[in-house]
Amino acid sequence: SRIYAVNPDKSIRWQYAGASGPVGKISIDASGNVMFTDSANIAVNDRVFKIKPNGREKWDVFLLTASGFTPITGPDGDIYTSSRQGANGVPRYYRLNGDTGAVVWQTSPDASFVYATSDLAYDQAENKLYAVSTSRFQLFTINPSDGQLTEDMIKPFIADPITKVTISGDLLAVGATLISNNPASGSAVYGIDKAT
Predict the structure, then answer these.
(1) Under 8 Å CB-to-CB from 83, ≥6 apart: which residues?
(2) What pTM did the predictor assign?
(3) How far apart are CA 106 and CA 97, in angstroms?
(4) What is the pLDDT of residues 53-71, one digit of tens each?
């Protein structure tokens, strides 16, 4: 797989060919660094990459089942990303050192349920990370400094998140499909007040 940076005139600025499997979602930080995941060997050798603005690799690290998730950059310059671990798919969240890719912390909720999880979202006003899961449709709030995770139930049933948490002032919004409960149920958007 290749990653291309394209100039405004549509010419190729650079291309990166170091990914050995399908490339996941891409993010770009304020300095122009590009982050993404790939899946070289599904569930075994997924990697997170950081590419410098000139197209040269800064680092890549192996993270079990991180492919398909979008790494994001926090205000500290470190990288935060989601993954799913093991046969039951329990989510795990990571903070990676922005300069080296070394794991600063990793955290995971109670492993007693099968989960799907969303990408992480960063709330600058509260200095918190948010993700949602299918286990009783929970909202995970994570402290970016130490990885401490708290769980809050959004609804007392299983719903699969189909969006990451979107943040606007005191409102958190997330989209979910309700098909796992009832194929005729469709989907819904939930608004959550951060104060409650």
Answers:
(1) 46, 63, 64, 65, 66, 69, 91, 92, 93, 94
(2) 0.85
(3) 12
(4) 999 999 998 887 777 788 9
Longest dimension (CA), the chain: 52
Tell me if 191 sits within 8 A of 155, measured CB to CB. no
Q: Are 69 and 24 in contact (CB under 8 A)?
A: yes
CA distances from 141 to 42, 169, 191 (A): 28, 16, 15
How far is the C-alpha of 37 from the C-alpha of 81, rounded, in Å? 10
CA–CA dist 149, 104 (Å, integer): 15
Instruction: Report how far residue 119's alpha carbon sits from residue 105's, in angstroms, rounded to the nearest whole number.
Output: 17
Is 132 in contact with 141 (CB distance < 8 Å)?
no
How buried is 56 (Cβ within 10 angstroms: 0-12 exposed, 13-18 middle, 19+ buried)? exposed
Which pairs with CB-CB distance under 8 Å and at least 24 residues apart come from 151-154? 151/109, 151/110, 154/190, 154/192
User: What's the alpha-carbon Rg for the chain, to the nearest Å?
Assistant: 17
Cα distance between residue 73 and residue 122, in whole Å = 9
Reported as a single tens digit per residue, the pLDDT across 108-119 is 887 656 567 888
Tokens of 29: 């930080």
Reduced to 3 states, what is the DSSP secondary structure of residue 145? coil
